[in-house]
Amino acid sequence: MNVLQTLAGSQLVGPAGPHSDFDAAEYDRRRAALREVMQREGLDAVLINNRYTHRYFSGHITNLWTNRSRPIFSVFTASGESYAVAVGWEGRRVVNTASDLVLVPYGGSGMDAEPSLEAVRDILVSTVGENVRIGYEGSLWTSYEITEAEMLSLRSKLPKATFLEISTQLALVRMRKSEGEVQALRQAAAINSAAFDTIYTPTARGLTEGDIYRKMSAALFEAGSEEIYFMILNKGDSARQFSVDNPVIFLDSGAVYKGYASDFNRYMTWGKAPAKLTDPLTRLKEVAEVIYEEVRPGRTWKEANQAVYTRSIKILPELATSGTNIGKFGHGIGLQMPELPYLSDDDNTEILEGTVMCIEPSLRHDDMGYLTSVTCEEMVVVRSHGCELLSDGKGAEVREV
């Protein structure tokens, strides 16, 4: 049955709208990979209600996710049909940003999610029938964003349907980045670096950590960030002043470009950097270089992690007793931060060319006083030979002001 004919207000959205992140070919590639997942898992459709996965497969860009009473969904069928479900007045943004799908709008007062759930039901019943096998996300990594009660209500509207949790399978699709995605991540890293260059100057002397936080936020936006994915500054004491008595600033931040996040920290010191900061950073940079060599296709993340650890304890003997401060040597990054994979013994999936990682070897350092660890962070993309830097490679440098 044709949804355009049966569901009131439905409209066809053409290839990659004027404000899309990527061209139509990129979304075609992603949906082809999604159909392969459906074929392997024996699914008739995939239902998405997660902001990152929705943007990834539909192209739809919106900040409406903060409005919990106006849910957004996308539905993809094994036969290749694609749908976006959104409140009527969100339709213009769908048209301007999404690619090659049918927009199914809904109305209602906004007091509950029922109109959106009914629209999802009508799409599924109209396209694949009542005895449908539906894949959905419901894990630590990506989960639906409606409430549990609303999900139960949706299931009750599809009593003959079977729901299967497939977040890991979808994470594996998103793990392997296209060159367009890699360039977006490279640009996000460049924006982060530009903001550090703006803030880490002698003008920071005497500022409170709260002042530095606000100035860094403004610098990220000025450099082109769409939003601030996260920011961590020292221990979070906004009133503490950057001074001779508080001589080290640790700032870890994430710029966003085309939805893709960066993630790395940099250090600034009042005057000459203390050896108890620079010495571990120098050794952590050596560990990072080991990671660049050991992370390559043809092995699992667990195997790479074990190889990195074996070589790293010769550089940092402290790792044998204290371990890394954050329990891993790195994590995936893309539309989300963090996302799969993890460079740890817990991830036994295969290393794929095109995966983008935040490499973050770190060391517990209780003697720092103002910090509890030292970390050397960079962003890399996995190539056939190993890792290629996306960030500026300055993770072991300290800006002395």
How does this structure look, described?
The chain is built from twelve helices and 19 strands. The chain is an alpha+beta fold. A hairpin with a 2-residue loop joins β9 (248-257) and β10. The N and C termini lie far apart (68 Å).
Task: Provide a short characterization of the protein structure.
The protein is 36% helix and 21% strand. With 401 residues, the protein is an alpha+beta fold.
The geometry reads as globular
The whole-number mean of residue pLDDT values reads 92
Low-confidence stretches: none
Number of strands: 19
- What is the strand arrangement across the widest sheet? 1-5-4-3-2-6-7
- Total DSSP helices: 12
Taking the sheet with the most strands, its summary is: 7 strands, mixed
Strand content: 15-25%
Q: Fraction of residues in helices?
A: 25-40%
Helix-strand category = alpha+beta
Distance between the termini: 68 Å
List key phrases describing it.
401 residues; 5-stranded mixed sheet; globular
Write the layout of secondary structure elements.
Elements: H1 3-6, E1 11-13, H2 24-41, E2 45-48, H3 51-58, E3 73-77, E4 82-87, H4 91-97, E5 101-106, H5 114-127, E6 133-136, H6 148-157, E7 162-165, H7 167-175, H8 179-199, H9 209-223, E8 228-233, E9 248-257, E10 260-261, E11 264-269, H10 275-294, H11 301-315, H12 319-322, E12 330-332, E13 339-342, E14 356-359, E15 362-364, E16 373-375, E17 378-382, E18 387-389, E19 398-400
Helix pairs in contact: 2-7, 5-6, 8-9, 10-11
